Amino acid sequence: MRYQITHQTRYGYGGPVSLCHSIAHLKPRETPNQRCKLANLRINPWPSVVREHRDFFGNRVSYFSVQQSHLQLEITATAEVEVWAPALPEPAATQPWEKMRTQLQDSVGAEVASARLFTLPSPAAPLDPLAAEYARESFMPERPLLEAALDLVSRIYRDFEYDAASTTVATPLAEVLQLRRGVCQDFAHLAVSALRGLGLPARYVSGYLETLPPPGQPKLRGADASHAWLAIYCPEAIHTGGWVDLDPTNDCAITDQYITTAIGRDYQDVTPLRGVFYGGGEHSLAVSVDVDRLEHN
Amino acid sequence: MVANLASAPPEPTGLGDSYRPLAGQFDEMRTSDGGLRPHWQYLIDALRELGSEGIDSRWQEARRLVRDNGVTYNVYGDPQGMSRPWELDPLPLLIRGEEWAGLERGLIQRAELLNAILLDLYGPRSLIDKGLLPPELIDGFPGYLLPCHGAPAPGDRPLVLYAADLTRDASGAWRVIGDRTQIPSGSGYALENRVVLSRVMPSLFRDSHVHRLAGFYRSVRRAMTRIAPRHSDHARVAVLTPGPRNEAYFEHAYLANYLGFNLVQGSDLSVRDGALWLRTLGRLERIDALMRRVDDVNCDPLELKENSLLGVPGMLQAVRAGNLGIANALGSGVLEHPGLMAFLPALCEQLLGEALVLPHLQTWWCGQREARDFVIANLDNLVIKPAGSPAGQRCLFGAKLDAEQRDELIAAIRREPHRYVAQEEVQPSTAPAYINGMLEPRPFVLRSFLVSEQEGYAVMPGGLSRIALDTDTPMISNQLGGLGKDTWVLASEPERQETLIVTADANAPAVVPAVVQESEVSSRVADNLFWIGRYAERAEGLVRLLRIVIIQITERSSLAAEADADCCLHLLLAALTHQSQTFPGFVGEGAADLLAQPVPEVLSLISDQKRAGALPQTLQALGQAAWSVRERLSNDTWRVTNDIERRQRLLTQAPPRGLGRALDLLDPLITSLVAFSALTHENMTHNEGWHFLEAGRRLERGLHTASLLRSTLVSVSPDQGESILVEAVLGVTDSLITYRRRYQAGTRVGAMLDLVLQDEANPRSLAYQIARLSELIDEMPGNSLSTRRTPAQRTLMRVMTELRLAELDLLARPSEGGRRRDALDALLASVETSISALSDAVTAQYFRHEEQPHHLIGQRSEAEALRGALPVTPLAANPAGSLR
């Protein structure tokens, strides 16, 4: 499937801003089942410096600084991406989860080392005994890894209510667990923390999801949003680099409707846009996202 | 030179007779059977010759030097707060040259090894991929900063500065007990210890053939220039300090001064065009290399710790863009992971192809199963160190835990094993310390310093030794109190004396170009200098007025309360309240009572520490402003600053109960304040920074001269009173002698106004201050070349003209009614307003601090649950079936 993504962010300031530095994770990375054909960042007012580098996880990071006085900052990221539905191993045929964990500890090599990094707690997905306990119900002894993981994702889908008003970007995991509600980001953090609590590697994925209007209605502009899910390390997933992406918000493994932007330990590693500015006073934020399907050619 | 004495030397008497090494610990001076180690012979002989009185007087001298140079180490929560003097033991630690050479080899190898590890961890990570370092050890440690991965390291030496803490085991072998790679601090204290000790024991120092330290600092300077992307003598290097409240601020200022680097804070800097810039007055100056004394995680709120106010947003980008070198590289704190030691022997074989020379503490990282089992089984003999967050967690001594704490610790280790490290408990070796007139053995730790060279590392021949005051202190930390000690590495041959300025190379140019153009002044520094000028002058003016007031009060009682004298005194007391801004005082509500009994209020102005505007607070403000620009003041100036601070403490700690005693305290204070002014005038280059100090002084003097004249002369006093008053005003303004010479016919208001108001040649007159201010303001940046006059320049022109055009007769003559001089009042009021406006104008033009940086509010991912909007069937119903 081919998509064009337009992600527009607009900051408005109460007073003039003299200098602004920003770091963006807005250009989609390549994955085993995704090619990024085109990625652009348009910044208004014109930035004095724009640089791009790869971060620790191989994501594309854009840095820019606006050095002229401005009252409004607009960042428009456009990308053209081709996605294939990932080929996944048969869940029931994956090895028991404890076995995978032991294997991981006892072997060396680049893939193992980078997977083990994701067993460690991270700032936004700290170890939480309650989260690990929650995961244990799915991870019964000897259960195949992917089967257990899919079960965990289903339970989050059933037990937690999607509620955009209940949490913010700063709501800690413990509170989400208690409220039993949140948004995709909270569910992804919960699953990540729960899996790591069992010693299993899990990473956070940020990206987009194609949405379709109810039948017979036109698609509204700017109505899409950025999305987040998680990936679990599963050595049998040889076609997807050893990782299987699961979406607890929609209770599924990802399809060719999911576009990956960046991966990290948690949200803080892959924040779409962060920045520091001088002056400005109070400021406001408006975001609009469009994920448009392009015709096959 | 004395190391080859074969026969047992005669034992010195006194001093060290009762000195016995502690059982089971290696002692630097004596062998376990009590014999003196030969290389101490010379020192002990010399000390014996000095006698305990001689040593005492040297020790006092050393303390005085430490105090005068303002060597401090701030201990948080200490009542002496900002300026607790660094404690120095007068006895150096002696190390034989041959022994040092061996130690040096080990230290250099260790620095090379750590540097290679650092390069790998922030680059290919092959050590982790090959299984030589477990990912949990590194990736689970908060000191490993992911955003720094892939940032360039100039010259492949991210570890520019390195320090190792050393002690000896019972057999006398040196061992590393800690690595300092984040901010290897202490080398400034080592240098200061050396300066002091070589001054109080010059001949002993000279004859002991001690290795000099200057060469090491030359290497530091070269190393900093080398990491600057624009290699050249013009590369601009700065020392980044967290600021005057930091515990080691003295060292930051001292090193910056000694090395000729600019001392900067995060708020002085900004990143533009992908490079780092220092905001100076009206300009931006590029910084090429930073010696940072701020923890790496606090250096860049854009990519590292968000809420840090100590760093500069975008700093990491400047490094990535290849426009800035930092020592040490951001992220180098990862090497301080205590668990890393367990892996060093294998890593040394792998990376350097040789065995690790210098042993360190036996270390177990609990992330490894066997190590964890061993640690839990042997908890009683081990020290447990948490690696990383939560910060502030302290070391635990297994043997000191009760059963409950023990279980708790074991459970915590099992829960997150990668966060726990265990090390053997060591008994540090002991060295002699001079305590209560005797030599006594005390545990010590030697911190050794290294700096990168083009090839390899250079070791400082010496170091910072710190000793514990108790014999059984397991940890020695300056935060917990301890003594500093100079460390003498004894050469077999005498060395040439060197300083940093004289270059050892005979072909080098005679004048080494300064790395920093010393005129560069940041807004913050200019602001502080301006206020130093103001506070110094304010204090001096206040003390002068207080002195005259005290004399008047004392004389009045002898004159049996004459009405005229009374009236004059009341006006002077009112002037005191006006000048110190301590209303209501002698002018507002309740003034009548205070005027009848003025002594307590006057004493309060002299010694009340809590009173805004009183003398102690003014002096304190002067001290703080001076401390904030410590590196700009010469050592002589600093000595006087310390003297002023000491006199201020005298005033507040034992407040004078009577006026006589107060006068005794004020007289020397005037002398110190005048000395301070003279030194800043004579010993500071008259550069941009000095212009601000001088302007502050002139502005304040103008202000209080106007205020004094206004509160004393606007009311017309009876004849006799007026001449006392004129004399008093002349006394305060230090113009009495000139006046008597010039106007022999008694004391008259008109003549006095001529001298104190209008005479542009009298450095105490109002007109002189305005004239000087005009010159100074014209020379400030942005004013000299501009065709349009700035608000400050216009204000000064107006005041100057007013003063010049004023007619003295008119000013001196009482208005109708004969009670007040209205014309004088109007003129002085206008002058006061203008000078205040001038201060505001200078502040607005030069000290407008850049706004605080803010963070953009975050946006979150909140794509809604699709709930069936997906064209494919949700997988939940039959996951296994639809996933293929």
Helix and strand arrangement:
The complex is a heterodimer of chains A (297) and B (884).
Chain A: E1 2-27, E2 34-44, E3 49-54, E4 60-66, E5 70-83, H1 97-106, H2 110-117, H3 129-136, H4 145-159, E6 161-162, H5 173-179, E7 181-182, H6 184-197, E8 202-209, E9 226-233, E10 243-247, E11 252-253, E12 258-264, H7 267-270, E13 273-279, E14 283-294
Helix pairs in contact in A: 3-6
Chain B: H1 41-68, E1 88-96, H2 97-121, H3 126-129, H4 135-139, E2 161-168, E3 174-180, H5 187-200, H6 202-207, H7 214-227, E4 237-240, H8 249-259, E5 262-264, E6 269-272, E7 275-280, E8 283-287, E9 289-292, H9 315-320, E10 325-327, H10 344-352, E11 363-365, H11 369-377, E12 382-386, E13 396-397, H12 403-415, E14 420-424, E15 430-435, E16 438-452, E17 457-459, E18 464-467, E19 483-490, H13 523-558, H14 563-580, H15 591-596, H16 599-607, H17 615-628, H18 635-653, H19 659-682, H20 688-713, H21 719-732, H22 736-742, H23 749-758, H24 766-779, H25 791-805, H26 808-812, H27 822-846, E20 853-855, H28 879-882
Parallel strand pairs in B: 1-19, 4-5, 4-9, 9-10
Antiparallel strand pairs in B: 2-3, 2-16, 6-7, 7-8, 11-14, 12-13, 12-14, 15-16, 16-17, 16-18, 18-19
Helix pairs in contact in B: 1-5, 2-10, 13-14, 13-17, 13-19, 13-20, 13-21, 14-20, 14-21, 17-18, 18-19, 20-21, 20-24, 20-27, 24-25, 25-27
Condensed summary:
Chain B: It holds the Pfam family CP_ATPgrasp_2. Chain B: Residues 1-22 are annotated as: Disordered. Chain A has 297 residues and is an alpha+beta fold.
| Largest sheet geometry of chain A | 7 strands, antiparallel
**Would you count the extended β strands of chain A for me?**
14
Give me the secondary-structure category of chain B.
alpha+beta
Proportion of beta-strand residues of chain A = 35-45%
**How large is the count of helical segments of chain B?**
28
The radius of gyration computed from the alpha-carbon positions of chain B, rounded to a whole number of angstroms, is 33 Å
What structural class should be given to the helix and strand makeup of chain A? Answer: alpha+beta
Mean pLDDT of chain A: 94
Q: Outline of chain A, from the CA principal axes?
A: globular
User: How widely separated are the two ends of chain B?
Assistant: 85 Å
Mean pLDDT of chain B: 85
In angstroms, what is the radius of gyration of chain A? 20 Å
Number of domain units of chain B: 3
